[in-house]
């Protein structure tokens, strides 16, 4: 039996796209002989959360014989999350409790002092965190996290589809994600075609092409464009609003979708992942979407082919879980040091 396990709690009604990153982490770490505890919960009532926590969760944790627990956070219930920490300490007092962060909710949907204090205190109950990147790490340090932290750099992506190998100079762009909050699309007037994937939109204009909503494992097959776009909010001049501001700290999962599919990315220069894109030369960073046509017009086929070559190297790593495997290894090494 492995001495390490990953605990993943899924809300029963959550769509596959919402759980994709957690499923992939579980799969990639399973390949390293790390055991998995996968549980489902109905978050609709306090009663269901109470019974889940004190019966199903407690039993699953109690029955394991592990030295290291990695919990995929958040579980979208503070009550359940607190019970995870409580039962691990109760039944495995000598074990290490680590957290793999998918979202910092006090940076995203719950930006108030009370929630932030609760979330930081929860993180500090752990022996260490796997965070998205160094920007997120610095914010957590500045706001009171005292435990060890390791940067993931990028989410891996289990991608069964062939890599996009298109290199013609008729540049096109794709955008996949929550189209309801990507209201900047309504204002976008590009001469280059933009193909959008996600929940149905009432109306598209100009060179925008709506392509439907697809399963995250199928979607890469249809991403035959030149670039994948990472942008959020209402504005063409910057990423704004709650989700635009969040881009300064998080690793958007769509970056991994694009790169693992063989597509270079276009991303806001102030986004946290702009550092990753520039360091690995796997895309273009921009200040404003209004500059995009001009930037693409100046892009040579040789420069694009170099981007594609760099993307293929990153894609192969993402498809094999290289980032999460390295982060887990590094965090365990820090704990033993």
Strand content: 15-25%
Count of discrete structural domains:
2
SS class: alpha/beta
* Annotated CATH architecture of the largest domain: 3-Layer(aba) Sandwich
Approximate shape:
globular
Q: How are helices and strands ordered from N to C? A: EHEHEHEHEHEEEEEHHEHEHHH
User: What is the fold named in CATH at topology level of the largest domain?
Assistant: Rossmann fold
The CATH superfamily of the largest domain is Glycogen Phosphorylase B
Protein name: Beta-1,6-galactofuranosyltransferase
Pfam families: Gtf3_C, Gtf3_N
Organism: Liquorilactobacillus vini DSM 20605
Keywords: Transferase
Task: Write a concise synopsis of the structure shown.
Residues 173-330 form the Glucosyltransferase 3-like C-terminal domain. The chain is α/β, with parallel strands linked by helices and 337 residues long. It has helices spanning 16-30, 46-63, 78-91, 113-123, 134-142, 241-246, 253-260, 274-280, 292-297, 301-318, 322-336; strands spanning 4-11, 35-41, 68-73, 96-101, 128-131, 148-151, 173-176, 194-197, 208-210, 227-230, 265-268, 283-286.
Topology:
Elements (H helix, E strand, L loop, with lengths): L3 E8 L4 H15 L4 E7 L4 H18 L4 E6 L4 H14 L4 E6 L11 H11 L4 E4 L2 H9 L5 E4 L21 E4 L17 E4 L10 E3 L16 E4 L10 H6 L6 H8 L4 E4 L5 H7 L2 E4 L5 H6 L3 H18 L3 H15 L1
Helix pairs in contact: 2-3
């Amino acid at each position: 039996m492995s001495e390490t396990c990953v605990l993943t709690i899924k809300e029963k009604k959550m769509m596959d796209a919402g759980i994709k990153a957690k499923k992939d982490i579980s799969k990639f770490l399973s390949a390293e002989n790390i055991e998995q505890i996968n549980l489902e919960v109905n978050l609709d009532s306090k009663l269901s959360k109470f019974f889940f926590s004190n019966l199903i969760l407690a039993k699953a944790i109690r029955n394991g014989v592990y030295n290291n627990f990695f919990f995929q956070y958040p579980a979208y219930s503070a009550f359940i999350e607190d019970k995870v920490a409580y039962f691990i300490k109760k039944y495995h007092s000598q074990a290490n409790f680590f957290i793999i962060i998918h979202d910092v909710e006090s940076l995203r949907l719950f930006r108030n002092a009370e929630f932030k204090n609760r979330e930081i205190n929860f993180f500090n109950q752990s022996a260490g965190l796997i965070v998205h990147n160094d920007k997120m790490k610095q914010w957590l340090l500045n706001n009171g996290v005292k435990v060890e932290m390791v940067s993931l750099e990028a989410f891996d992506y289990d991608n069964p589809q062939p890599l996009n190998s298109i290199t013609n100079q008729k540049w096109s762009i794709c955008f996949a994600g929550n189209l309801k909050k990507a209201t900047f699309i309504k204002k976008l007037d590009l001469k280059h075609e933009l193909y959008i994937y996600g929940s149905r939109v009432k109306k598209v204009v100009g060179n925008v092409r709506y392509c439907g909503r697809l399963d995250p494992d199928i979607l890469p097959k249809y991403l035959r464009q030149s670039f994948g776009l990472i942008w959020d909010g209402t504005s063409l001049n910057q990423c704004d609003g709650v989700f635009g501001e969040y881009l300064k700290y998080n690793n958007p999962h769509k970056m991994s979708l694009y790169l693992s599919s063989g597509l270079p990315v276009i991303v806001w220069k102030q986004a946290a992942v702009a550092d990753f894109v520039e360091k690995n030369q796997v895309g273009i960073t921009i200040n404003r979407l209004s500059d995009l046509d001009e930037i693409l017009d100046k892009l040579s086929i040789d420069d694009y082919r170099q981007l594609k070559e760099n993307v293929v190297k990153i894609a192969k790593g993402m498809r094999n879980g290289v980032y999460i495997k390295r982060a887990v290894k590094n965090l365990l090494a820090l704990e033993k040091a």
